[in-house]
Specification:
This protein is an alpha+beta fold. The protein has helices at 3-15, 25-32, 55-62, 127-135, 148-157, 174-181, 202-211, 305-311; strands spanning 22-23, 43-46, 71-76, 94-98, 116-117, 138-141, 161-167, 186-187, 197-199, 218-221, 224-228, 231-235, 266-267, 282-285, 297-301, 325-327, 330-332, 337-342. The protein has an eight-stranded mixed beta sheet with strand order 5-4-3-2-6-7-12-8, sandwiched between helices. The protein has a four-stranded antiparallel beta sheet with strand order 1-9-11-10. Strands 13-14-18-15 form a four-stranded mixed beta sheet. The chain is elongated.
Amino acid sequence: MPRKSLNRSLHAAKATKQDEFYTQLTDIEKELVHYKKHFRNKTVLCNCDDPRVSNFFKYFLNNFEVLHLKKLITTCYQNDKPDLFSQHKSDKGIYFEYSGEQKGNRLPDPAKITPRELTLDGDFRSEECVNLLKQADIVVTNPPFSLFREYVEQLVRYRRKFLVIGAKNAIHYQEIFKLIKENKIWVGVTPMGVDLLFDVPAEYARKMLATGKEASSYKVVNGVVKGRSPSIWFTNMDNPKRHELLPLYRHYSPSDYPTYDNLAAIEVARTSEIPCDYDGWMGVPDTFLDKYNPDQFELIGIPFGDLGKELGVKKNHRGRTDIAITQNGKSRCPYSRIIIKRKK
């Protein structure tokens, strides 16, 4: 892709408010504690991170010896100032490599690090950044949400292990759901219902205070406004949670589990209510992916929009390909479902 085109799309991504959310160290620590065995003698790349301010870089630097890392590489898009919310006015990106030269209490202070300039702008798709990607074993970061499809596609194409943050609704992207269905990626250990809070630019924080609703779009923590963005971890690194069997206690009855008007599947309102004796298709909430064990269940599809058409969903009472249920003479469309099937 030509450099001018890369720049244009990256600037568009940075203009998207969702791309101005930066991950807290506590959320990184809570998720990464489950993957320690994966990092021994590995090179880690954080390719959307300024080493002077990134909490991802700080985590891996502080745990370099504990994780027995081989090397840590971080790159940042167009940034010549140690500013978490850079305006990206520089022509060049920056990068930094650390191979464990300093030990224990003599670790370099991220705030005092002087990174080196890249030849180009630090776009993760540029040739020099791809070359750094090829050196890495594992990629861990919070990429631009508006470029999430392309970002994950690149990781899969180069067969890298990864642990990245994305919007919850990314599971509905055709490209992403296909990877989940094929058991090539899955959601992380942190439950989908747990809030991830993010640092946001001061201007955006003021707008949220003026127009948003606390606990909905933001949360004030120790006097600091933190943005709330419905986000989850995506990974292709194994963890014990995804091999736990989900206990099934409920039994199927037509009165408890109505069939959709326009798809041969039953409605299951909660993951805990999946019947133990129904062998057909079932519609479950997105949060089912927290409990999804590929040995116990099969993912069938997403029952709305273009993905619904592929699944065979017929048009509902609103003329759309969303699943619908008629109860007590009223039709409704359940919010955000995934069609699954039990494996015998």
